[in-house]
Each structure stands twice: as C-alpha cells, then as structure tokens.
Write a structure and sequence with these properties.
Length: about 120
C-alpha cells in the first residue's frame, strides 16, 4: 500500500510539472498559426490589389477570386468568420483607395505571450 502511494505521489509530481509546460507550448503553437494565417491573408490582399488595382470588399472576395483556397479558422476563436477587415485609410492628399479590406486582424480578445492583444497583430 505504501509503495502504491509513493508511485501515485511521483506521478502527480511529474504531472504537475508537465501540464503547465504543455499548455505554454500549445499557446505558442496557436500563436504561430495565427501569425502565419495573418501573413498569408495579408499577402493575398496585396496580390489582389496589385492585380486589380483595388482592395477586396471582403475576405470572401479573396476566396472567390482564388487568391486563397478558403478562409482559415482563427486559432483562438475557432471560427472562420471572426476575422476583421480594416478599411483603407485616406492618403495625405485625401484620396481613399477602393475596396473595403486593406488589412485583416484577429477577432480574438485574448492577449499573446508578448503582452500584445491578438487583435493588434
């Protein structure tokens, strides 16, 4: 009985050490996926602008025009439609670029390991 108790104690100590490390690595992996998804979508928006001379009206236009195969799921909200489009800002001379999606951001309210909210990445 004492041996079984000792084994249980050792296993619980190992689990107490492993679980926080696992969660940290899981969060880091999600952050990496978010960073890559944002990069690919921004690259597609830039390619769309270079080809058509205007920004897409929505992210669906990127999919319909075959710049993306599909919208990725946000790794933190876990839905495809949580991405937020940023409208183009006017230039110094007051002109506004055509289109409705100049940039894309995550719809997550969470904060990253670096202290910056995911919606500001």
């Amino acid at each position: 009985m004492v041996e079984l108790l000792a084994v249980m104690m050792i296993l619980s100590i190992l689990a107490a050490i492993a679980v926080p490390s696992y969660r940290k690595h899981q969060l880091k992996a999600r952050e990496t996926v978010l960073s890559e998804d944002l990069y690919q979508m921004r690259r597609s928006i830039d390619a769309y602008y270079a080809d058509k001379g205007q920004y897409p009206e929505s992210l669906e236009d990127l999919v319909n025009s075959h710049y993306l195969r599909g919208l990725p799921r946000d790794p933190f909200t876990r839905v495809e439609d949580s991405w937020e489009c940023v409208v183009p800002e006017p230039t110094d001379d007051g002109e506004l670029a055509e289109g409705g999606c100049f940039d894309v951001k995550s719809g997550s309210e969470k904060v990253g390991i670096n202290g910056i909210p995911f919606s500001e990445w």
